[in-house]
Amino acid sequence: MPAESATAIPRPPARTAAPSAPVLTGAQAVVRSLELLGVTDVFGLPGGAILPVYDPLMDTSEIRHILVRHEQGAGHAAEGYASASGRVGVAIATSGPGATNLVTAIADAYMDSVPVVAITGQVFSNLMGTDAFQEADIVGITMPITKHSFLVKRAEDIPGAIAAAFEIAATGRPGPVLVDITKDAQQAEAPFQWPPRIDLPGYRPVTKAHGKQIQAAAQLIAQAKKPVLYVGGGVIRARAAAELRSLAEATGAPVVTTLMARGAFPDSHPQHLGMPGMHGTVPAVLALQESDLLIALGSRFDDRVTGKAALFAPDAQVVHVDIDPAEIGKIRAADVPIVGDLKEVLPDLEAAFRAAIAEATPDIAQWWSFLDGLRDEFPLGYAPTTDGLLAPQYVIQRIGELTGPEGVYAAGVGQHQMWAAQFIKYERPNAWLNSGGAGTMGYSVPAAMGAKVAEPDRVVWAIDGDGCFQMTNQELATCAINNIPIKVAIINNSSLGMVRQWQTLFYDGRYSHTDLNTGHDTIRIPDFVKLAEAYGCLAIRVERAEDVDAAIQTALETNDRPVVIDFVVSADAMVWPMVPQGVSNSYIQYARDHSPAFEREM
Ligand SMILES: Cc1cc2nc3c(=O)[nH]c(=O)nc-3n(C[C@H](O)[C@H](O)[C@H](O)COP(=O)(O)OP(=O)(O)OC[C@H]3O[C@@H](n4cnc5c(N)ncnc54)[C@H](O)[C@@H]3O)c2cc1C
Ligand SMILES: Cc1ncc(C[n+]2csc(CCOP(=O)(O)OP(=O)(O)O)c2C)c(N)n1
To answer: What's the structural domain count of the chain?
Structure first.
C-alpha cells in the first residue's frame, strides 16, 4: 500500500465554529479542532515539546484525556478504540522518545487498516536538524507506515492539518495519519478558522465501482461451479456486514473469513466455513484451494492465507474488490478487478448477480456436498492435556460462551490469538480485535482499554499470552485509575508458546530461549496475581478445569475495577490445523495424513 498523496476534500467537517474567527494559540487550536471534529476521548502522555497542548486540554469538558503509562499503550488504545467503534482513535505524545514509542502502534495500524490520528510535539522549528534535545524526525520515520504524515510549523496551519488528518485516516482505505507540530507553532497565535480549507491534491478514494466490472463479476459468479466468498477485514472497515450477508445468501456460496474478518459474517451461519490460512479450518482452506472462483472482498491474499502463492487456488478465477487499487493484482492477478467501497459495491454486485441468474439458477450442490463432507470429517477440536494442566482452548471457549457475542475480545499475538480466533464464536463485526498484519505482541491490554473507553457498555476481554502480557501490562494502572474495567485472561503456558510450537515442529524440540518461567510451581516470575493486585485489579489464579467458569463469572460480575485471571495452562498444547510456512495449502492434507500430533489433536 503506497503512502497516498493528497487533494481538496469537498466534505466540510461536521460542526462549525462561531463566524468571527477568534485568535487562539496553536495549542488551543489543536484542542478546539479535536472538539469540533467530535473527538471525545484521546490517549496520551505529555512531555516538553507537546506541553503547550496539554495546558488547554485541562480546560476542555468535551474531551477526556486518558494518561497512559507508555506511549505504545496510547497507540494501541487508539487502535482498539477505532476497531471496536469504527471511530477515529487519537494518540498524543511528545517529541523524540515519546513519538518513537508510538511507532510500533502506528505500524500496526497501517498493516491492519485502522483509522488512527497520532499527534506529536516537535522541537522548535529553528532547532530542527540540530540534534536538539528530544529531536527525532518522526515524519521521516513514519512516512512508510502512515497514510500521510504532516509537519506543521505555523499556528494557522493547525486546524487544516488536523481536519485533513481525520479525513485521510477515516476515508478510502483507513489507516494512521501523523500530525507533528513544532513547539513554536503550538505557542504562536493565529485566527482560528473553521471549517478550514483542506487542500490535498491527488487524494480521491474511489468508492463507486465501474458498472462493467460489476457485470463481469456477476457473470462469473453466476457461472461458477465452485465459488467461495473470500472475506477480509475490508468488510468490517466498510461497515458492510449486512450487505455481505445479503450477497452471500443470494449466491448461496460458501464464506470464509480471514483472521481480520472474524465477525464480518456470523459464525453460526450455515454457509460459513470458518477462517482460512495457516491455522484455518480444513474446510475453509480446501474451499479456497479447490475453488474455481475466488470472490475476494476486502482481503489481501496475505501469505498466512495463501501459503505458497504460486500454488494457491490453482484452478480459480479471481474477482477482487478493494478500495485500495494497489492491493489488486499485488499477489494474485485478478480476472475481474473492482476498485470501490464494499458498502457500495456489494449491493451493486448482488443486484447484478440477481439479474444474471434470472434465466438459470447456478447449481453448486456438488460443491456443497464436497465441503459438507470436509466439515463432517474435520470439525475444529482439541485433545485433552496429558500433564494435568488446563487445556487453553477450553478456557478460551468458555470465556466466549459465558460472555456471548455482544462482548469484545482483544487478543495478543501467538497461540492464544489463534485459539481465540478459532474457539470464540463471532456473530457481529467489531467484536474481534487483534494484530493480524504486524503480529504485535503487547497489543491486547491497551487495545482492550481503548475498546472499553469507546464501548463502555460492552464487556471487553483482553485474551493475552504470558509473553505478550509482560510487554504492556502497565496499562492496567491506567485502567484501574481511570475506571476502565477491562477483563484480562492470561493464557499462561509459561512460554513464548507459538515460537515453542515451531521449535517442536521444525527444530526437533530444541527450546532455545522460549521458557518464560511464569507458570511453574517453583519459579513464577512475575507472579501475575500479585502483579495485578499491585495494579489495583481483582486477581484470580485458575489451575483446574472445574474452577474456570466460576472465575469467568466473577470477572463478568466485577465492574468496579479491572480483573486479571491467570489461567495456568499446558505448555504442550498446539494450534491445529496448521499449514507449514511457505508450502502449498494442499499440505493441509499432509498435516492430516502424516502428523501424528495432528491426528491426535483432531
Ligand atoms: C500468529 C499469526 C498467525 C496468523 N494466521 C492466520 C491464518 O491462519 N489465517 C488468516 O486469515 N490470517 C492469519 N494471520 C493474519 C495475517 O497475517 C493477515 O493479517 C490477514 O490474513 C490479512 O487479512 P485480510 O486479507 O482480511 O486483510 P486486511 O489486512 O484486513 O486488509 C483489508 C483490506 O480491505 C481493504 N479495504 C479497507 N476498507 C475497504 C472498503 N471500505 N472497501 C473495500 N476494501 C476495503 C483494504 O484496502 C485492505 O486491502 C495471522 C497473523 C498472526 C500474527
Ligand atoms: C513484539 C514481538 N516480538 C516477537 C514476536 C514473535 N512472536 C510471535 S508469537 C510469540 C510468542 C508469544 O508468546 P505468548 O504471549 O506467551 O503467547 P502464546 O504463543 O504462548 O500463546 C513471539 C515471541 C512478535 N510477534 N512480536
So the answer is: 3
